Amino acid sequence: MSEISNWFQSVPLLTRYWLGASIVFPVLGRLGLLNAMDMLLLYQPLVYRFQIWRPLTALVYYPITPMTGFHYLTNLYFLYNYSSRLETGTFFGRQADYAYMLLIMAICNIALGLAFTIPLLMDPMVLAVLYVWCQLNRDVIMNFWFGTQFKAMYLPWVVLLFNMVITGSFMNELLGIFVGHTYFFLQYKYPLDFGGRRFLNTPAFLYFPNNRGTGGNSGQMPASRQQNAAVADNSWGSHRWGRGHT
C-alpha cells in the first residue's frame, strides 16, 4: 500500500485530484454506496430539484460494469497520462493556468451535455485534455496498438474510432474534440498565428502565492523548460500504448 500511496502523491496536484475523484465516485457507485442515478447530468433534477452537484459528478463518474470496465480503465489511463504531461510540461509552474483550462473545458462540456442530453461527461472531458496535448505536440510519433504509428495530431481521431468500435458510439468523443479544439484555437492558434487578442487570460482569483510561475499567461513554455518537458514526456515507464516519442 505504501508504494501505491507514494505513487499517488507523486502525481501532479490537479491531475491527482481529478484522477482520485474519477476513481472514488465510480467505485462508490459500483459498491452501491452512492446512487448512480444521482451522479448523472440530468436537466430536470438539476433545475427543479436544485441538485447542483450533478454537473461535477457527471465529469468524474462512469458506471463500472463487465461491459464498461475496459473503457473506464482506458479513460483513467488517458486522464493520468496526458493530464500529467500537460501539468508538468506546458503548464509547469503555472498551476492556475492549468486549473483555468480545466474549468473552461468543464463548463463547456456541462453546457453541451445539457444541450445534447449527455448524462456522462468523463469521455469528453478526458478527450478534450488529450486533444490539447496532441495539438501542442502534433509532430510527436505515437505508438498505438498492433505497432501502428502516427503523429500525435491524429491520436484524438484514432481514439474516437477505437471507442466507436468498443462502445458503438462516438458522440462523446466528438464533443470532447470540439471542446479541446475550441480551447486550443482561442488560447494558442488565434493569438499566435492570426495575431488576435487572447480571450482566455486566467482570472486573478485563481492565483495563489508561488502559483504564477515564470510562464505567466503567455501560453508558451520558457525555452529552459522545453528540454525538461520533453524528457518528462518520455519518462512515463515502459508502456507503449498511446505514448509518443520524438
Order of helices and strands: HHHHHHHEEHHHE
- Order of strands in the sheet with most strands: 2-1-3
Structural class of the helices, strands and pairings? mainly alpha
Average pLDDT level: 84
Measured as a percent range, the helix fraction is 55-70%
Number of continuous helical runs = 10
Tell me the fraction of residues in β-strands, as a range. under 5%
Number of extended strands = 3
Shape: globular
| Low-pLDDT residue spans | 212-246
Distance between the termini: 35 Å
Q: Over the alpha carbons, how many angstroms does the gyration radius reach?
A: 18 Å
Oligomeric organization of the protein chains: single chain
Notes on the structure:
- This is Derlin.
- It is found in: Endoplasmic reticulum membrane.
- The protein is mainly alpha-helical and 246 residues long.
- It contains 10 helices and 3 strands, in the order H-H-H-H-H-H-H-E-E-H-H-H-E.
- It has helices at residues 2-10, 13-31, 43-48, 54-60, 69-88, 95-115, 122-136, 155-167, 171-193, 223-233, and strands at residues 141-143, 149-151, 243-245.
- The chain has a 3-stranded antiparallel sheet, with no helix packed on it.
- Strand 1 and strand 2 form a beta hairpin.
- Mean pLDDT is 84; it is low at 212-246.
Quick rundown:
This protein has 246 residues and is mostly helical. Helix content is 59%, strand content 4%.
How does the SSE layout of this entry go?
Elements: H1 2-10, H2 13-31, H3 43-48, H4 54-60, H5 69-88, H6 95-115, H7 122-136, E1 141-143, E2 149-151, H8 155-167, H9 171-193, H10 223-233, E3 243-245
Antiparallel strand pairs: 1-2, 1-3
Helix pairs in contact: 2-5, 5-7, 6-7, 6-9, 7-9
Protein name: Derlin
Transmembrane segments: 17-37, 58-80, 100-133, 154-184
Organism: Strigamia maritima (European centipede)
